[in-house]
Amino acid sequence: MTTDRAVTPRIEARADIALMAGYHSPQLDVRVRLNTNESPVPPPEAFTEAMAAAVRRINWNRYPDRAARELRARIAGLHGVDPGNVFAANGSNEVIQCLLLAFGGPGRAAATFEPTYALHSHLARVTGTALVQGRRRDDLGLDLDEAAVVIGRRRPAVTFLCSPNNPTGMTDDPGAVAVVLDRVAEVGGLLCVDEAYGQFSPHTALDLAGPDVPLAVTRTYSKTWAMAGARLGYLIGPEWVVAELDKVALPYHLDAMTQAAGVAALDHVEEMNRRVADLVAERSRLCAGLARLPVKVWPSGANFVLFRPAPVPGAEVWRRLVDRSVLVRDCSSWPGLEGCLRVTVGTPDENDTFLQALEEILA
């Protein structure tokens, strides 16, 4: 088709967005997929049956409950808080994005302590929030001296901790989290503790929560509830934080089926707890298997384990595992994690297949 209309310049993306790489995990066709920290088993059959019935009851021609009142009430009951302390969204990533839209943005900063979950820094950049990146200790633990300097000098509006930390799996000491919270409060900021893997750990920052405490804790249904396909996460925080998040969330952003799934899952708390216990036990067995190989293993409070193989480089080990139809996460691009790989705790058979393949590669 031809036209006499003059060609107009194409609009360009924001300069900072144009230079940014998106967040992606490789999705390859393999027999054993242990790279995205999903549950190795589907939800209980009773949940599936309940969801089938719930779908038949949805009024598809009507908008969903904008406030997700039933879902928030059920989550609140799970944690012993009021519904006004709960905000739910499409995965904990949208929760974090709303948090930065409300409390970050131009002229404000967000602090992270690397290496940590990449979406904290990515979403800060997307929302136009200045990024301040502190470093963890050489052993990858939280450095309280570094935290004091970063928070005291840069006075970030939002400070992120991830515990258990992704991708290291390490859990921050509750006393250390309390110290960081005090520093954040001193500068009038907000502390967000990302507990996407919190159910696998004996510690939670929720113990520090209160009406006037500048603390928000995020959780997800993707891992322990075996619902990565539903995209549902939530935040527990003071009512004044939740009220601001409601302002920046898109209207009807949480669809009716996702809300129904979140409610139905909470009818199976005991089953979830059993699955978490099974995965924790399997994590110990996986770590014991890794300890017999020439690899460095970091302690994990999550459903994955970080390790650095030797003498074969991590990137080469990753490729050879894929050749054997086993997929893990290559973390070597994270700050301080050169040569490191991360493996999700799978089923016993999946873990055995991974360990056997890794032993062959490192032999």
What is the element layout, followed by pairings?
Elements: H1 15-18, E1 32-33, H2 45-57, H3 69-79, E2 86-89, H4 91-103, E3 109-114, H5 118-126, E4 130-135, H6 144-154, E5 158-162, H7 174-186, E6 190-194, E7 215-220, E8 233-236, H8 239-248, H9 256-265, H10 269-291, E9 295-297, E10 304-309, H11 314-323, E11 326-327, E12 329-330, E13 341-344, H12 348-362
Parallel strand pairs: 1-11, 3-4, 3-5, 5-6, 6-7
Antiparallel strand pairs: 2-8, 7-8, 9-10, 10-13, 12-13
Helix pairs in contact: 2-9, 3-9, 4-5, 4-8, 6-7, 10-12
General description of the model:
The protein is of the alpha/beta class. The chain folds into 2 domains: 15-43 and 270-362, Aspartate Aminotransferase, domain 1 (Alpha-Beta Complex), CATH 3.90.1150.10; 57-268, Aspartate Aminotransferase, domain 2. The protein is 39% helix and 15% strand. The protein is built from 12 helices and 13 strands. The protein has helices at residues 15-18, 45-57, 69-79, 91-103, 118-126, 144-154, 174-186, 239-248, 256-265, 269-291, 314-323, 348-362; strands at 32-33, 86-89, 109-114, 130-135, 158-162, 190-194, 215-220, 233-236, 295-297, 304-309, 326-327, 329-330, 341-344. It has a 7-stranded mixed beta sheet, sandwiched between helices. Helix 5 (118-126) links the parallel strand 3 (109-114) and strand 4 (130-135). Helix 2 (45-57) packs antiparallel against helix 9 (256-265) and helix 10 (269-291) runs parallel beside helix 12.
